[in-house]
TrEMBL record:
This is Flagellin. InterPro entries: Flagellin, Flagellin_C, Flagellin_N. Belongs to the bacterial flagellin family. Residues 335-419 form the Flagellin C-terminal domain. It is found in: Secreted; Bacterial flagellum. The keyword Plastid does not apply. Keywords: Bacterial flagellum, Cell projection, Cilium, Flagellum, Secreted. Flagellin is the subunit protein which polymerizes to form the filaments of bacterial flagella.
Amino acid sequence: MTLSINTNTASMAALESLSKTTKALNDVQNQVSTGKKVDSAADNPAIYAIAQSMNGNIAGLSAVSDSLSLGAQVVNTASKASSDIISTLQTLQQSVTQAGNNSIDTDTMKKQVADAINAINSYARNSTFNGVNLLTSTQDTGGTATLNQATIVTGVSGTQMTIGNQAVAINNASNAVLTNALGLSNLTAGGTATAANQQVIGTAGAGQDVNGVSITTGNALQSTDFANNSTIQLTNKDGTTTTFEFVTSGTATTTADTTGPTANHTVAVTIDPTSQSANTIMGKLVDSMNANGYTAALQTDGSIDVVGNGVNDVTSSIGNVTKGANLTSSQAVVTTIQSAINKMTSISSTLGASTQQITGLQSFTSDLSDALTTGVGALTDADLSAASAKLTSLQTKQQLAIQSLSIANSQSQSIMSLFRG
């Protein structure tokens, strides 16, 4: 054995072992204190990069969740207001029916109508959340809305969903006030109708204009009765006509005009008789009439009551569709209110569908965020039970390394015995 005071290989080996053990011990102690096995890029560059990308997505999903929550509140505000509006309309319809049967005092009826109109507009105008109102437009001077639609971020990539203003949608006008959009602006109580679209509640004066007509179905309609380019034509008080042409393929025979009733124009109603029932097709006709300046309501017997523009005649190329009786003033008013209820019901359905969509996205966003959080944890979190066991082992190993280094350092002392006399 060679003994040297310049090179102590045993001490060097013991020191290297102690250094490695101390580094490993420091790493384990860091895992125990932070709970992370990958806490920085130095620990594992690849895993750290992946984890940071996933953490970015988690932060993005948090922003998406906030946007969805805000959008949900906008829609819920409009939904609650629409429910109150429907209730008000139902009460108004009951009052109007009673007025027709019992000749309620005109002044009382006028107040009920005015109160109902004011309440409906008030519900709509006050259903503003964070500046967004889905029931009355920014052009409504009585409202407080600054935005006509809700734009909701639905994904970390910036994808969006938009929920438009419902009053504008049912009125085809940018300045829709809800009662106007619902066709209620021409209701009055008592007196004589002074305009083609005016409907009088209760007893009207002599010489009142015809308020509307009924479109009847003498026999049970089949979807096959609606041939391509078949038509239903309304004649207005001024002699002009509006023709609703059913289109099953191709285009209407005349360019469609959706700007409202004008002289002798045609509106295309696109249908699919192979998959839609006759009642569904009549419903599409009602929607088209309502979108083009009339007020129409589909009755339980399949007939349609239509008012507006002093409409007083109906002609049809469909054999089972004919003109019914002219509507009385009370019937016209009830039709107008029924149409308003149908429109508000459609609005409520649209808002309900939006609520379901938002709720689904909220659930998905939460689940995705949880999955990503779990994934980041699996990549970066330390197994503390394993770390605890390893810590005990390394502490023992460190003590042994220190003892080994002490022994190695003491070997140089044995050289002195060689030089003693």
